[in-house]
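## retry 2 of 3
previous attempt timed out at serialization; input unchanged, resubmitting
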Amino acid sequence: MTDTNASDHPQASQSDCFDPLDFDGDTLREECGVFGIFGHPDAAAITALGLHALQHRGQEAAGIVCYDGRRFNSERRLGLVGDHFSKRSTIDRLAGHAAIGHVRYSTTGETILRNVQPLFAELEVGGFAVAHNGNLTNGLTLRRNLIREGAIYQSTSDTEVILHLVAKSRKSRIVERFVEAIRQIEGAYSLVALTNKKLIGARDPLGIRPLVLGELNGHYILASETCALDIIGARFVRDIENGEVVVISEEGVESLRPFPPVQARPCIFEYIYFARPDSVVHGRNVYEVRKKMGAQLARESQVEADVVIPVPDSGVPAAIGFAQTSGVPYELGIIRNHYVGRTFIQPTQAVRELGVRMKHSANRAVIAGKRIVLVDDSLVRGTTSVKIVQMMRDAGATEVHFRVSSPPITHPDFYGIDTPDRDKLLAATMDLEGMRRFIGADSLAFLSIDGIYKAMGFEGRDPVRPQFTDHCFTGDYPTHLTDVIGESAKQQLSLLAEAG
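## retry succeeded, writing output
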């Protein structure tokens, strides 16, 4: 769900907007989460609760579309779910027994209201709404072709391609149109769509992005993660399988298989970073997997130390696993203030640094005079790691050893994760010793590729048929990258400006 027109933000890029003093700036970002429910009298309220649970997947915008038996009702807003959809007046405007919802994080440029999902259109076969988690790697190519043929776009999101492909189809049934549309798209997607009679869900042929089926008092639900089922007391039924289309109606659940069967390759970063720790992804509890990654990291890169400290919040489970396996005590050496919003740009360097300390502060009592192991889940640009290491030294640490519970990120993502261009990825531009010197640590080690697979119960990575989509570590992209020139997202962006 990438913005595909740079004309709305000609000078905005992640590197331009990045604040190196913001601890939340140097992280990987997931694009969005989706939710849908069919046949429930409080469909909008249930959807809003589900989106609350998926808020970690996107914090820039949220939207809900409902159908009440006569018409579709839509609310799309910039900001957090709780800022808008906790209000009774908003929910009352979303009358209906079926609904889909979306939380969004955009990968390039500013968030604008016309890109907020679900997207909706009145088609020949009736109203059709769609929400998308992922990224279409041929979305720009399809967009150009559709515009050439007369399509009029209302957003700059690649998701709108799906609307146009469904509208263009000459099939008589909406489900057949939907299937014909997704057969033309490439990349990663989990989709939820709503018609006047059906709730439709779909995953791409490799199952890169997640989608699950749940049930609440006889009403079926689609969601990006199981944590969205837990918040409403729904029962987990099963994962939607790779390449599967599910059609939910008054008759129940129908499963379609429009693609040739292939081995699933879900995104490995769901386990490392994106999924909420209490979610279960493909039968694996995310929290337990992250602990096992930390344990494997300890086995691979043991070091003499006095205390293990997590980089909050995502590094906590791995740090626990590291500490348990290494026998080194676990302590909270960095305290995070959860009541501070994003650090705004301050007028001077000194004041900006004070703003950062409002978010994270060192717990000097467990750091001073100690040899510490810092555990984080990933290392992207490395700028945040520099600040954390220096914070530990300023708090009196005698040695700072940095451990990362995933392999080095050497390649950008094109499937729905916001990553910098390759020349901005620290591991793509430096060797291990160079990275260690850059962040200022006494030692630096990453979890190996085989180690991350061992943490998930495999003997190692299958080099012929990899079990997961792990291109950020290996460069092994599992699909065609039709819109990509080389490996530069900037080159894509320059073409997008022409497309606008």
